[in-house]
Design a protein that fits this description.
By secondary structure, the chain is mainly α. It has 13 helices and no strands. The protein has helices spanning about 1-30, 35-40, 45-55, 60-70, 85-120, 125-140, 145-160, 175-210, 210-220, 225-230, 235-260, 265-275, 280-305. The longest helix is centred in the first third of the chain and has 36 residues, at about 85-120.
């Protein structure tokens, strides 16, 4: 297994290089001049040109790309044009907020999706099944940012139990930290919980039709034991797969939620970087998201072996 993990980690390298090339190519042709935006519309052409030279924006595409790659392999992803600090430092400062938000959203999605899917599969073709699947369809159709706004208007403002925005550091006030991330996490988790519920139901219905389940019932095993030990245990591979996909989706979806709830995470960082044409910061954030998604896929593959001993990677 160690060999497999090392091989997967090595495979990260060409993927990261490919993504970085595409991002660099798109940013090279995107309209707008960072130097002009920094100096303002009243800046003289000479001042703009001087700033372009100091920022390296006057160079052709290939030298700029090779220079960026050369620095990146040494761990230097450049400096933010506007923040005037290392890209790595700027991202590291915002990562805890985004990871906390994504983690809370994933936990909520699992706690809602898996039990709902189990109930819907056990009560197939009943009003309970229809209610759960109807709620899942509504959750999938409702955008996360819209759900966030609804939670602000109908939960945060009337009750005052949760803040409408802002972030409280975990170690400064744990309870305040949880309150500041509860509604954003719920906004993220509800829609993806609907996806997990649908996959759980579908996967369990396939297993419920198998012969060994009928045999277990014929032997007189309690229905709860059959569902938990036999049906759910043998349905976990597709469920874990969709949970891994959901984790990646939540990481990307955090951008909109962080904007709605004014959370100082990576999402708001990349939004401001795009508005300001802060190329090094945009590249750094996208590479961070790409690496996180690849890491989630690796963890999912390893979980396969834990839930199903028949799965082996040579």
């Amino acid at each position: 297994m160690t060999t497999y993990i090392l091989r997967r980690l090595v495979a990260f390298v060409p993927t990261m290089f490919g993504i970085s090339f595409l991002v660099f190519l798109m940013l090279y042709f995107v309209p707008g001049d960072p130097a002009q935006m920094i100096l303002g519309v009243d800046a003289t052409p000479a001042a703009v040109q001087a700033l372009q030279v100091s920022m390296g924006l006057d160079q052709p595409f290939v030298p700029r790309l090779l220079g960026w790659y050369g620095r990146a392999v040494q761990g230097d992803f450049g400096r933010s044009y506007y923040l005037n600090r290392s890209v790595v430092e700027a991202i590291a400062e915002r990562v805890p907020v985004t990871l906390q938000l994504t983690g809370i959203g994933l936990i909520i999605a699992i706690l809602i999706g898996v039990p709902a899917g189990i109930i819907a599969s056990v009560r197939q073709n009943t009003w309970i099944d229809a209610l759960v699947m109807g709620g899942a369809m509504l959750g999938l159709a409702l955008p996360g940012f819209l759900l966030g706004l609804l939670l602000i208007f109908f939960v945060a403002l009337p009750t005052g139990w949760f803040p409408t925005g802002g972030y409280v550091p975990l170690f400064q006030d744990p309870l305040g930290n949880l309150r500041s991330l509860a509604l954003p996490g719920l906004s993220l988790g509800l829609a993806q919980g609907a996806l997990i519920a649908r996959m759980t139901r579908s996967s369990m219905l396939e297993v419920l039709r198998l012969d060994y389940v009928r045999t277990a019932r014929a032997k007189g095993l309690h229905e709860q034991i059959i569902i938990n030990r036999h049906v759910l245990a043998n349905s976990l591979i597709p469920i874990i797969t969709v949970i891994g996909i959901v984790a990646g989706v939540l990481l990307g979806g955090a951008i909109a939620i962080e904007t709605v709830f004014t959370l100082p995470g990576v999402g708001r960082l990349v939004i401001s970087a795009v508005k300001r044409r802060d190329y090094p910061l945009i590249q750094g954030v996208i590479l961070f998201i790409t690496f996180s998604y690849l890491a989630v896929n690796l963890v999912v593959d390893l979980l396969y072996m834990m839930v199903n001993p028949r799965v082996r990677y040579s």
